[in-house]
Amino acid sequence: MQETISFTPQLAASPIAEILWLIPAVPMVASGVIALLKQPKRRTAAALAIGSLSFSLLLALLAFVHVAGAWALGGGIRETVNFTWIQVGSSHVELGWVLDPLAAVMLVMVAFVGLLIFIYSTGYMEHDENYTRFFCFLSLFAGAMLGVVISNSLLLLFMCWELVGLTSYLLIGFWYQKPAAAAAAKKAFMTTRVGDVFFLLGIVWFFAQTGTLLFYNGGAGSLEPAALAALLAQHAALGLTAAGAIGLLIFAGAAGKSGQFPLHVWLPDAMEGPTPVSALIHAATMVAAGVYLIARVYPLMQAGALTGGTTTALTVVTWVGAFTAVFAALIAVAQNDIKRILAYSTVSQLGYMMAGLGMGGVAVGMFHLITHAFFKALLFLGAGSVIHGCHEEQDVRRMGGLRSDMPLTFVTYAIGMLALCGFPLLFSGFWSKDGILEAAQHWSVAKAPFYMLVFGALLTAFYMTRQVGYVFFGYWRGHKTAHESPAVMTVPLAILAFFAMALGVIGTPAWPWFRAFLDGRALTFHMDGFAEPGLIALMGGSTAVVLLGLGLGWWLYGGQAPKPEQPDVLEKAVPVPWGWLHNRLYVDELYGVTVIAFYEWWARVADWLDRRVWGGAVAGVAWLFRGWAQLNRFLDTNWVDGGFDKGCEELATGGGLLSRVQSGRVQTYLRLLALAVVALVAILIWSSRA
Amino acid sequence: MEMIFYGLAALTLAGGLAAVLLKNTVHCALALTVAFAGLAFQFLELDAQFAGFAQILVYVGAVAILVVFAILLTRGSETPMDGVFSRTWLAGLAIAAAVFAVLSWAVLGSTRALPGPGGAPAATPTATVMQIGNALMGRYVLPLEIVALLLTAALIGAVIVAMHEKAGSL
Amino acid sequence: MTPLAGYLLVAALLFAIGLAGALTRRNAILVLISIELMLNAANLNLIAFWRYGPHPEALTGMMFAIFSIAVAAAEAAVGLGLVISIYRHAHTTDIDLMNRMKG
Fold first, then answer.
1. Residues A584-620 pLDDT 10s
2. In chain B, residues 101-120 whose CB comes closer than 8 Å to chain A
3. Distance CA A5, CA A516 (A)
4. Is the residue at C103 inside a domain?
5. Which of A146, A170, A149 is nearest to A215 (CA)?
6. What pTM, to 2 d.p., does this model score?
7. Which CATH number do you get for residue C47?
8. Would you say the C-alpha torsion A600, A606, A612, A618 has a positive or negative sign?
9. CB contact under 8 A, A662 and C103
10. Which of A123, A297, A346, C46 is deepest in the core (most CB within 10 A)?
11. Has residue C57 been placed in a domain?
């Protein structure tokens, strides 16, 4: 259900809001300090990173308590602290941060999951020689992500967004000596870049229209009613209002970051990075930043909607999300790399989140984001544990029977898997996914997304069972014996597993705390929340779908997973569709022949231009100068020097000539004397005459 | 009495020319003596008796003899192989002619400043020996003493020049 | 032409003759002879001016001429002594060959 939300804006920020900026700043500073450390100081680096994030977590919890306390007293609060960053003449560029329920829950989630993954990494990356660099980047990422969460200005958000993208690039390409990793990092950066271009256009347009980049500014912010009304009055192309067009542009940026179709291609390749990176960045937090962005600018996306209706922007978001959910789930069915299955699963779940935002509003989408963060991080860390235990093996066809060798990993992994599938009642995924399905069921525009999402749920259960069957059941098909991971890795798994189950509590219809908290409404526990029409039927239906998927998966893969050389069961049955799905529906190849080919052609053109035209011009100028220099040298040698030399020669010759006067002969002197006398006398006579 | 003037002038000039042109150096010295004599007579003609006699005494009696001595001492009587005149004698002659030209130009150009053909001034000037003596001891005593010094120096110098050579070479 | 002018011309001509001799003859002694001629010409000039010029009673010209004679005599003596000593050194009186001061 979508409702307009209004908060009581605070006039003066509370102390915790004043120091909110420390939450992203401290990990960033820690990152800087680690960067200055020399390689061998592993313990210092890890301690700095974990310590700074713990501090941020502490502050985040304090902020959460503050907001929750204010909510409990009745009414949500939103506190902003804004300041002027640049002043050019009379126009200002302002930045600021905001503390409201949305920011508070996201802060706690990011800091908590991040901290668990940091601790996990000390075990996972123990044998890596670039341990310090890893924690430097991780810490920088944590700071940037927290910056995205609290920023009140679209500009500050974009800056931290870019920083998040940078650290993602650095971490995907952490093992840069591997060509595949370096290529994957570049792919990630460039694909998100495409989205970011549209995002930047949206920001510029937004700023031009509203005159401010702050979201909330005591009535003058860009997401507040006055600015939104102005945006609605403007009309852009294709029957959109300015609000709708800007919303779509911002969604393009979110689609890049959150791996929606068609910009999803980088996420599976990003699995080249270390598993903690995959867990933190590409499951729990960074990819969720896109969803968070849409949630943040939701008033813009929703502007102009009539009560119970929807806007063009949100419709687009829904369709893209639903399509991505099914598309990625299909591909996940036919993958053999343990992390790649999870990557496509993430893409699919992000599609669910987007669809939830589009159809159900901020609370629906964000609830699934929070629960997904926990169980997807759990699944990735579990996969990392499996990989670590199988001596860096990643192909599921070479694993098997790990149920007995790695019991703790198995139990936690199973909990995560069931949460992802949406197993009823006990697991948080069930409640969050059902929230989305319920919103889809009641969507006014079309029913197709609902059926797509249901089909997606079936596929999710199927492929996850396939994966678990391959990895944990059957017999061991690997080379060396597998072993359980150390405690520093399994304890975070256990903690995440606990939350994967427990978080469901805050989203049940009986006690929808999450929604109420985000909306700023009061709340009571009431079992007749279940009495909404069609709700029980929906819950039953989704349970049936999940069980169907689990059963299918177990039937095909549950006991007797084939040898690695033999093809997959499904592959034998339907080889051609399997081939398409295994090759990821040829999206990368399509990009290769269109975008990449064009780009290469353009690069060649530019190279030719550069070398021939500009280079030629520069060479021409240089040639001109050389010619000039040659001319100067010629002039200097022949005219100046030559002239001077000639002059000296003439002087010498003249001197030689003159010296002949000194013949040494007296008579010559006498003659000259006489001549001089003649001349003198003549002058005298002449002058006396005149 | 212009005939005397022309005659004496001719004598002097002839003697001078001969002194310059003759090949035998001794002949030149003797011609020089004739020129000196001619000049002395011209002084007498000009009522400068003392100068005239001094001329004869000094020039004819001493200088000419000295020149002859020098010639004899330097075997100047022998005529050199490649002529007595320098190779560029024409240039010298030309210059001398130029000098004469300019001097005569000066002389002839200023005739108006000179007294007219009335000739001599009213009275023939007297330059008795007593007057000359008085002048020497009176007005011209300083030049006289200096000339004396000069003569002494010349005497000593000539002796030294001749003597050094003697001690060095032989 | 006044008598003075005549004497002056004669003196000038004698001077020129002496100069010609000094400039053209190769024997050093002949150069000295020519110089004596020039000096005598100057003396003639002096006496002529004394006789025909104003104030002959001051005896200036006469005195000058007398001093000139004295000095000329001294100079002739010294000069000839030099020529003799040069002759002893170089065994020739040809002044064309005496160019050790050549520059």
1. 788 888 887 888 888 889 999 999 998 888 889 999 9
2. 102-103, 105-106, 109
3. 11
4. no
5. A149
6. 0.65
7. 1.10.287.3510
8. negative
9. yes
10. A346
11. yes
